[in-house]
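Materials and Methods. Structural model of TlpA family protein disulfide reductase. The 198-residue sequence of TlpA family protein disulfide reductase from Cryobacterium shii was retrieved and submitted for structure prediction as follows.
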Amino acid sequence: MTRRPRTLLIGLVAGALLLTGCASDPLAEQYREGSSKGFIAGDGSWTEIPVADRGNAVTWSGADETGAAVTSEDYAGKVVVVNFWYASCAPCRAEAPALQKLNAEFAGTDALWLGVNVRDQAANAIAFNESFGITYPSVMDVDNGSMQLAFSGSIPPNAVPTTLVLDRSGRVAARILGSLTSPSILETLVRDTIAEES
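The predicted structure was written out as tokens:
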């Protein structure tokens, strides 16, 4: 193969990949249309837990998609939004843009975002982040399930996605079981938790 056809082929493949990221997402569309093929998800219901009922802080550790160590100590004193997800989960794909938008809106505040990928290897998570413009890290939990175990008293293991809001002490302050039906709910839960005294 000469240099010109090879360059043309590489350009066509790169263009196709770029267009794939811009096209509509069939799994997310399937979810929006009400199909629950291939996943079990919650109903989007949310719960806010009174301060007196929150119990102990959840301690956890893992490695993100780049291999960097991530622990609960890294987030001490911050409100943390923890989203359990995986790349081929249709409701996870549907809610990804809203999660990233809220992450950007809360930049520079006391709220930080963290994903927990429950099924994929790092390469899939990185590709997902690039496709959806996700800028916050995700702990890769497929090999040992340590994150799911740490939060097992707070989230049902069969409901993905699930989003938790942790208070500054590392306790679960709120939970959304299933995809975000309204991003304003999560925004309110985060703002309420930020407003609490530490």
